[in-house]
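Hi again,

Forgot to attach this to my earlier email, sorry! This is the prediction with iron/sulfur cluster bound. I've pasted everything inline since the attachment limit keeps bouncing my files.
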Amino acid sequence: MAMTSFAVEDNDARDRGGPQQPLLTVNGLRKHFAIRGGILGRAKAHVRAVDGISFAVRKGETLGIVGESGCGKSTVARLLMRLVIPDAGEQIFDGDLVGETQGISVAEMRRQMQMVFQDSASSLNPRMPVQNSIAFGPIAFGTPKAEAIGMARELLVKVGLNPALFGGRYPHELSGGQKQRINIARALALKPRMIILDEAVSALDKSVEAQVLNLLQALKRDLNLTYVFISHDLGVVRWISDRVMVMYLGEVVEIGPADELYNNPRHPYTRALLASRPALDPDNRREEAPVSGDPPNPINPPSGCRFHTRCPHAEALCSAKAPLLGHQHHDDHAAACHMEDPASGHSQAVRH
Ligand code: SF4
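Structure tokens for the complex follow:
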């Protein structure tokens, strides 16, 4: 792959299925972490961190993933990158099954899919000038060092840092926002098509966060990128996302276009989550009670609908049977709740 320029490529030769084919499709992704104990270290229980989720990321979109801490959203990021090995499920990258024996290998997928974490300080080598950190990936893939450093300096410009001023600096000489810009440059160094941003702006001051969000939007446009944007901050997710996926206790409970989901949330958990935000706009206050109590333990999640222990609309059916995330309405917006299914038997089931 030629790696001398970061100019926009109108026709990315790696684009296999055209715009209609999702860049990433995930089917039945599952990860249960064993909790070991005793002198033999046997598994005593399992945390059901991600429990059989399916979704697709379309080319050029930003898919936001939200949910309370412990809902599994960061595990999803690590599973997608294969930093954590899934127990089950398949992952398809632009039409190719990800696997070592067929389709696309994990190593090749990682060239096309990069990740930026929240902790900007610890993801950079403290003993390496930042331009060398950015050049590290391309050098590992065989780009001559001088060429890779040239690319790194080009990327510094792209992320809004003057290479003459910043290229030779060490991480401790940079602010949090500058370090996160370096991490973004590093993620871009292998010319990925997709970036997973896991709480990537959450640690920044609000004004710096806004600048980095604007930078991410500009880079996405200029470099034809696709984002998965994971955050607990509902306002930021709405601002940056085309579609939003809401997770609760390892499952997807709702997915839909961002404006539609925020204006017309269909799952009681999403409604409660949105209601628990500090209301900045007094005309836009919601009547729904904020979600109360802590999420149940993911080691032994509630039966049926996992939200039934906190849901104001729960009925006997809800603890007996898990609702499916169906596209009941033949639009892009779906929620896993019995009230969304007119045939479920829930007394408040409605037809949209
Ligand atoms: Fe509430 Fe039942 Fe819907 Fe679950 S399925 S969100 S418990 S109404």
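The chain has two domains: 24-241, 247-340. The domain at 24-241 is CATH 3.40.50.300 (Rossmann fold).

That should be everything now.

G.
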